Amino acid sequence: MSNRLEQLAARRRMLQAQCSVQRAEIAGEGAVLGAGAARVDQAVVVIRRLGPVFLAAGVVVAVVAGPRRLIGFARQALPIALMASRAMRLLR
After folding, report:
1. What's the CA dihedral at 55, 56, 57, 58 to 10 degrees?
2. Cα separation of 1 and 6, whole Å?
C-alpha cells in the first residue's frame, strides 16, 4: 500500500507544479489584458472630454455642407452610428 501512497504523493506534487506554471501564465495574460484595458479607458476619457467639440464641429459642417450633402452623409453614417451605439452598450 505504501507504493500506492508514494504514487499518489508524486502525482499530487506534479499537479501542484502544473498549477503553479498555469497560475504564472494566467498572471502574465492578465497583465497584458490590463494594459489593453487601460488604453481603452484612456480613449473613453478623451472621447467624453471632446464630445462638445465634436458636437460644435458637426453643427459647423451641417451649416457649410447644406441639406442635400447632409442627407447623403446621414445615409452613409447611420449604419456606422448604429454599430457604435451597440458597441457602447456592450462596453457598459
Report:
1. 50
2. 9
Evaluate whether 62 touches 70 at the Cβ level (below 8 Å). yes
Q: What sign does the CA torsion over 76, 79, 82, 84 have? A: negative
C-alpha cell recorded at residue 34 = 490590463
Percent of the chain with pLDDT over 70: 99
Q: Taking the mean position of all CA atoms in its chain, how far away is CA 28?
A: 18
Taking residue 23's Cβ as centre, other Cβ atoms within 10 Å add up to 10
3-state helix, strand, coil in the chain (%, to 5): 95, 0, 5
pTM for the model? 0.40
Q: According to the model, what pLDDT value does residue 39 have?
A: 82
